[in-house]
Design goal:
Layout (H helix, E strand, L loop, with lengths): L1 E7 L2 E8 L24 H4 L3 H12 L6 H8 L3 H13 L3 E4 L6 E4 L11 H11 L8 H19 L4 H8 L3 H16 L3 H11 L5 H19 L2 H11 L16 H13 L1
Antiparallel strand pairs: 1-2, 3-4
């Protein structure tokens, strides 16, 4: 078990405990690769209707908000249905309205730009101790797990500053930038999984299992949208064998594992 100090230019802010598997133990795998079946998600976010999802997407793309009457025209839906969709989205705190009367415009609620709660560093320490993100001998699995930690740090800290997050995690800034681009994609296209994850984190949940599955759901959606063989190769290279907390991969990666996977992927297309 290693203790790693996370810090930025202002000094250390936390000690992150990373558990590593014993030599005679089964190799660790990223949480995304081997976990029990995800329980049924709460209906509040995952069960949005097609109209509610489309309305949220339209609002996300608008710069200055949209009136309800404009949404009637854009969606082609009945007036009462648009009204219900707006009421649902506002009740879930996914959107908010500005102005009064006929001048009311609806805008999406952005992800938090400030830390979600005091002591988030300690919360992250406990989470990482329970679900290690390093897979000995597995470059792809370790990169996947490292992406998950960067997403958590970005949401918990409320920051999208690549230097700050790179300092906090001791990961290469270019790698962090690539992960932040993935988060931008999720926010731009209104991935419900992203908002659900933030909602659970806001509750400062000690049920790490629920957080894990919400994070996995987001990763699966991001991977389906973002992944290509070329991007995976680039992501592995940008990580450059670095792990969260300043450690380095202890194995030599000759790229054969990735090449074999990409070869199988290409053959399946």
């Amino acid at each position: 078990m290693d203790q790693i100090v996370l810090g930025d230019n202002s000094g250390p802010i936390s000690t992150l405990t990373v558990h590593r598997p014993e030599a005679d133990a089964s190799p660790a795998v990223p949480a995304c690769a081997s976990t029990p079946t995800r329980p049924s998600p709460p209906a509040s976010l995952y069960d949005l209707t097609t109209l509610e999802r489309f309305t949220l997407l339209v609002l996300q793309q608008a710069r200055n908000g949209i009136t309800e009457s404009d949404l009637w025209f854009i969606t082609g839906a009945e007036t009462v249905d648009v009204g219900k969709a707006l009421t649902t989205l506002e009740g879930l705190k996914l959107i908010e309205h500005l102005g009064d009367g006929a001048a009311v415009r609806y805008i999406p609620v952005a992800l938090s730009s400030v830390p979600l709660f005091v002591g988030w560093e300690s919360w992250l320490t406990a989470y990482c101790a329970k679900y290690p993100q390093v897979c000995d001998g597995d470059t792809r699995g370790t990169t996947y797990g490292t992406v998950m930690v960067v997403i958590l740090v970005a949401l918990l800290s409320g920051s999208r500053n690549r230097k700050l997050i790179a300092d906090l995690t001791t990961l290469p800034p270019q790698f962090v930038s690539s992960v932040l681009e993935m988060i931008d994609v999720a926010e731009k296209w209104c991935f419900v999984e992203l908002y659900e994850l933030e909602k659970l984190l806001l509750e400062k949940s000690e049920k790490h299992f629920e957080i894990l599955h919400a994070l996995q759901a987001l990763m699966e959606r991001l991977w389906n949208r973002w992944w290509t063989p070329e991007r995976e190769i680039a992501l592995n290279r940008l990580r450059a064998g670095r792990q969260v907390g300043g450690q380095a991969d202890t194995w030599v990666d000759d790229g054969e594992c990735v090449k074999e996977f990409i070869s199988l992927y290409s053959a399946a297309q």
